[in-house]
Specification:
Layout: H1 2-13, H2 23-55, H3 59-71, H4 74-85, H5 90-115, H6 119-127, H7 132-162, H8 175-184, H9 187-215, H10 218-225, H11 233-239
Helix pairs in contact: 1-9, 2-5, 2-7, 3-5, 4-5, 5-7, 6-7, 7-9, 8-9
Length: 240
């Protein structure tokens, strides 16, 4: 309990000590790496996942690539890329590492969102005269958005947790407090850094949970409200 109080006191002190960056600066660095990595991964993975889900081709290859990417140890990859790209390109090496970490979740969220759509809905759109591009934009993307957001949510949380290793290469972020505090035996700093990372992950998780609610198309939300499980008791009795 005393250690937790010491960690909270360290967070609130405003001076991390040991010549480290202030907490707001470290938080900004942590968020910057996370946002950049997820955005780049999204540009790569989301269109590819939509193409797989729309055409039904290449799913096995995507699953194999995603599985291989998940098996790569992030810390080892970061150090390898720093050695290969040079110490002057450490930020780029870190971003590449985090992008590779985020791609599998985004790719899976993109194509599973399309696969989960009832095919009769897609066929109805085609029977109304929609072209393939219109079916993609007006039917598949809106209905697949909730699962895509789930993939973005998973990727973001994974990257937030992994950005802590960027401090091993002096790239800042909230991980610097954990890594610096261990050899100094500043366990208040170590726990404080861990609490900050956990708090950031919880806040982002809550934001994505809210976005997932509003990501449902209006018609789907209305249908859910009219579902039998939510009808008044009198209405259910009348249907019995």
């Amino acid at each position: 309990m005393n250690l937790i109080l010491d960690a909270l006191a360290w967070i609130l002190s405003g001076d991390p000590g040991a010549g480290l960056a202030p907490i707001p600066v470290a938080l900004g660095q942590h968020l910057a790496y996370t946002v950049v990595a997820v955005l780049i991964a999204g540009v790569i993975a989301v269109p590819l996942g939509w193409a797989i889900g729309h055409t039904g081709k290449g799913r096995d290859v995507a699953v194999a690539i995603s599985g291989a990417a998940r098996a790569i140890p992030s810390f080892g990859l970061l150090l390898l890329l720093v050695l290969v790209m040079g110490v002057l390109h450490k930020p780029e090496a870190a971003v590449v590492t985090f992008v590779l970490l985020a791609i599998p979740s985004l790719l899976a969220g993109a194509y599973t969102g399309f696969e989960a759509i009832d095919r009769s809905v897609v066929d109805a759109g085609r029977s109304m005269g929609m072209r393939p591009g219109e079916v993609l934009r007006r039917v598949e993307i809106p209905l697949g958005l909730p699962l895509l957001l789930g993939g973005v949510r998973s990727a973001t949380l994974q990257v937030v947790a992994t950005v802590t290793i960027a401090a091993y290469t002096n790239l800042g972020g909230l991980g610097q407090y954990i890594i610096t505090g261990l050899p100094l035996r500043r366990f208040d700093m170590v726990l404080g850094g861990a609490l900050l990372v956990a708090a950031l992950a919880l806040v982002l998780d809550g934001i994505f949970a809210l976005l997932a609610v509003f990501a449902l198309p209006r018609g789907v939300r209305a249908a859910n409200r009219r579902s039998p499980a939510r009808r008044p008791r009198r209405a259910r009795a009348a249907h019995a």
